[in-house]
Amino acid sequence: MSAHEKREFEPKIVGFLCNWCSYAGADLAGVSRIQYPPNIRVIRVMCSGRIDPVFILEAFKNGADGVLVSGCHLPSDCHYLSGNFKALRRVTLLRRVIKEFGIEPERLRLEWISASEGDKFAAVVRDMVEQIKKLGPSPLKMKEGEE
Amino acid sequence: MADGKVGAVLVVGGGVAGIQASLDLADSGFKVYLLDEAPSIGGVMAQLDKTFPTNDCSMCILAPKLVAAGRHSNITLITNAEVMAVDGEPGNFEVKILKRSRYINEEKCNGCGLCAQKCPVEAIDTYNKGLTDRSAIYVEFPQAVPLRFKIDREKCIGCRTCQEVCKANAVEYDQKDTEVVLNVGSIILAPGFEPFDARLKSEYGYGRYQNVVTSMEFERILNASGPYGGVVLRPSDGEIPRKIAFVQCVGSRDAQVGNIYCSAACCMYGIKEAIIAKEHVPTKLDCTMFYMDIRAYGKEFDAYYKRAQEEYSIRFVRSRVARITEDPSTGNLLVHYVGEDETPRVEEFDMVVLSTGMKPPKNFEKLAKVFGIKINKYGFCETDPFTPLETSKPGIYVCGAFNSPKDIPESVAQASGAAAKAMAVIASGRGKLVAAKEYPPEIDVTSEEPRIGVFICHCGINIGGFVNVPEVVEYAKSLPNVVYAEGNLYTCSDDTQKRIREKIQEFRLNRVVVASCTPRTHEPLFRETLREAGLNPYLFEMANIRDQCSWVHMHQPKEATEKAKDLVRSVVAKARLLTPLKNPTVNVTPVALIIGGGVSGMTAALELAAQGFEVHLVEKEKELGGHLRKIYYTLEGIDPQKFLNNLVKSVMENDRIHVYLGAEVTEVSGFVGNFKSKILHEGKEKLVEHGVVIVAVGATEYQPKEYLYGQDPRVLTQHELEEKLAKGEFNAKRIVMIQCVGARNEERPNCSRICCGQAVKNALKIKDVNPEAEVYVLYKDIRTYGFMEEYYREASEKGVLFINYTDACKPKVSNENGVLKVSFWEPVLKQEVEIEPDLVILSAATIPNPDNKHVAEMLKVPLTKEGFFLEAHMKLRPVDFQTDGVFLCGMAHSPKFIDECIAQACAAAARAATILSKKYLEMEGIVANVDEDLCSGCRICESLCPYGAIEMTEKAGKVVAHVIEALCKGCGVCGTACPTKAIVLGHFTTEEILAQVRAVLKEMIAE
């Protein structure tokens, strides 16, 4: 880690959440006042099946240290029947792709969080922040900094 | 109201049944008053953790219905109230209502919850079944509708803290009860049930032993928002249990406590609770269920029961628990029972869950008096098997558990059915009491630069207490294209809506951003405000700085403020790119096509005709009646043939119903509101146009291959026996009935539901004809659920012998030199018994209609593994298909009794009426669009779309994808997969989301 990083590294995480389950779960964390680190910024989409790999790559390109993709539980919770399966396939493949770019696959996480799992949402964010702190800033960001 | 029919309905009870009835009525153009005694709607379902057999989260599937009922412009919620008197007649009732004081001004309270946080009192939390405390000023649960607080004056100490902290000035200590008088055309009763008080079964120690809990308490324990945050803990010491006993039939099937009926839902919810408990407990957990019969009689229930045994290793012990004692040193419980081998046993458990039954609502006597309806001997509403939704008083209908104990999908089906009944009485009043809202003409903003207004909510101190709102407002002003920004105490309040409209005018705003709570609850409100100001409602976007910011970073105000800025910036970046979207409209042909002319199809046809709609009724056979033609008497002893003849006569005489006998639907095309179908009738093909389809094709009886059926004339099915009995051709002295023939096996794992009742019915009839006859019923589980239990009891009392068999040890039927013999294991005698009956009667399964596959393919709707039609949602949409405009009822759905078929048929009619009653349908504006120049016609999207909303068409010599807007639900899966990016999902375009991604990160890097 470079010398100018004096403060503790605070990861920037972008979360893509489906409207029906995971976004509702994140809302429930709030309603239940479950505290979690303020490192995540959520972008709402209607279905996890809408999450284009391009969105995730764009997030990494713009300096995200981690990306969370979250949808309704497999197999049958998806509001749109099967969008979650599509998210599963895309994210699984994309994790291999980002590895090629030098981004650790652990920085991209896929979780199934239901509308009643506010505690799980908070736990996932907590865990991700901790894990990414260990990994350090995104290698992509480091490269940009060197330029 | 030319004929004096009032186009309004009072629905009493705001549980899932009451809500469903209200939504169906309101969507069909009637005014609804939905009344509940509780301060919010939701009923028991709001307290459940998961639902069987899909394990869906209960609140997740219920909450959208709560919000829909709360926001519907045709529904007025009257909570915390009760009906005092009813006067008048069908079509015109006068209802006196007592609205109890909440001590909160409902108009002013916005549910921010500050008062509850500051309230110093700890009262018992009834939502969590007393396992936790709540404040004296409260809402029942966070998702409550209406989200209005109430003061529990019994617990309130009058400190007035709430009054001081309430920024909305909503607390009114002196508020009085008020009386309201309503004029309605019909009434639906859906007051639900009261759980059996487990204290009355004192030998189980509930109330004395802390680790004996009721099933409702256990639901809360399992729930993530429950007393232990979803961790399964023992109430006595907070330890994780390793061994839990589930005790069935507590307060049901029990003459000792005065409830001889079966509560119909407990076996399944017990199994569900055991499964969920095993999923929640991280360590090894043993679950044992003590039961008399596992009554998994519903659709796909037996498959669930099997999974509980095989996948979850839940142990099932057939025994009635005698008593429960406690080891005071450990808090463990000793369950005393007689084992399946007839020896007394004692087993130790860490925790015991009592599956408590359903009792009629506490105030059933008052309900009977006020509404003038008859009550049955158990205290439930009295109904007739052929008019299952009608009370004894014309114009007043009943649905849900007050009708008889039942689970959620049956309650929902009955609710829609009761709505159909309630509508038919007042069909002429449709649309009279609901006002269509007028909006100003929409301003065209497409050529304008974005001019964004940002409104940032303090939410009292919910946001403002942690996020520096003025700082965020100043920051918002600095963002590109933002021409106006302000902070509000409550952005959602009525006066702020007015202010937003004024600011839109004053600053010529063409995009609006609100940073406050969650779009899931508040987006519709603000979109409405935009429409009222002449802006397209899709020129709006929200930043969630409360639920996902201030409330979850309460100890980090600086970071929370920075996050709020990031979220506002991100949303503003999206807002700059927003474009107006149209809500596509489709015209509706007010005609129904019904496939199948049995009792279900005919009932649905009559219900729709009564509401003024035209119906095409297509029956494959040469006469109407279907399966019911083979039924000669019901369990209750009524002759269905008389009923059937009347039904057929009414259908044939009805001008609005076109009957096609010996006919077949050969082709269906189009979509909701606009179907075109071909009917092959008398050698000719007729083309009909219609707005909806109802599938009522019924089911058939399995032709057994087992037990010498077809080889020995003395082996008959229950239907064949019934015919003999009805025609006086029965003269046997010794009869053996074998249950579950062709059901609950490898090939067809599910229960056929009606055969146990049928066997009991025929056994009783035999005893009627010849009291000396010996009747043996060999069964796996006797599933005479609900009030049918009474007849099972009667049969036992009359000497019918019920003998249990298992899959491992099935009965054997043989013909030895002309002598018919049945041998089986007698579990009480513990030996093999052989008898020589005159007749062997097989309770043959009810199997899907062989036409189902063809019909399903034609309508593009799914079937279950067994071949019955699969509805849109097992719990909450029992008669809908995922495809809009196509509905389902009767045995095509799954085997069921006549009253259940009738209820479902009425339900399908009500659901269909929500479409047929509209001149046109307004669809959601967020739909996919195809850029035909970019489309390469690869068909990837067509195969991915779960709704069949994409079709391939030829445009200018090229095959391109086309989105049928009426079918598109806006998930965006197609656009994401499109290799040429030819498909764009409105309001969630790739550019919009990418802009959001970039903006949310931009300044974060600069730090």
Helical amount among residues of chain B, as a percent range?
A: 25-40%
What is the CA-CA span between the terminal residues of chain A?
Answer: 16 Å
Tally of strands of chain A: 4
The secondary structure category of chain A is alpha/beta
Sheet having the most strands of chain A: 4 strands, parallel
Structural class of chain B: alpha/beta
User: Got a strand count of chain B?
Assistant: 52
- Strand sequence of the main sheet of chain B, in spatial order? 5-2-1-13-24
| Main interface by residue count | A-B, 55 and 60 residues
Question: What fraction of residues of chain B sit in β-strands?
Answer: 15-25%
CATH class of chain A: Alpha Beta
Q: Shape of chain B, please?
A: globular
Q: If you compute it from the alpha carbons, what radius of gyration of chain A comes out, rounded to the nearest whole angstrom?
A: 15 Å
Counting DSSP H or I runs of 4 or more residues, the number of helices of chain A is 5
User: End-to-end span of chain B in angstroms?
Assistant: 68 Å
Question: How would you write the strand order of the largest sheet of chain A?
Answer: 2-1-3-4
Assign the CATH architecture of chain A.
3-Layer(aba) Sandwich
Low-pLDDT windows of residues of chain A: 1-5
State the helicity of chain A in percent bands: 40-55%
How would you portray this structure in words?
- The complex is a heterodimer of chains A (147) and B (1007).
- The longest helix of chain A has 18 residues, at 83-100.
- Chain A starts with 12 loop residues before the first strand and ends with a helix.
- With 147 residues, chain A is an alpha/beta fold.
- The model of chain A is unreliable at 1-5 (pLDDT under 50).
- Chain A has one domain: Rossmann fold, CATH 3.40.50.
- Chain A has five helices and four strands; from the N terminus they run E-H-E-H-E-H-E-H-H.
- Chain A has helices at residues 22-31, 53-61, 83-100, 118-135, 139-146; strands spanning 13-18, 40-45, 66-71, 108-112.
- In chain A, helix 1 (22-31) links the parallel strand 1 and strand 2.
- With 1007 residues, chain B is of the alpha/beta class.
- Chain B has 24 helices and 52 strands.
- In chain B, the strands form 17 sheets. Chain B has a five-stranded parallel beta sheet.
- In chain B, helix 1 (16-27) crosses helix 2, helix 10 (469-477) runs parallel beside helix 14 (557-575) and helix 14 (557-575) packs antiparallel against helix 24 (990-1006).
- Chain B is globular and about 100 Å long.
- The interface between A and B is large, with 55 and 60 residues.
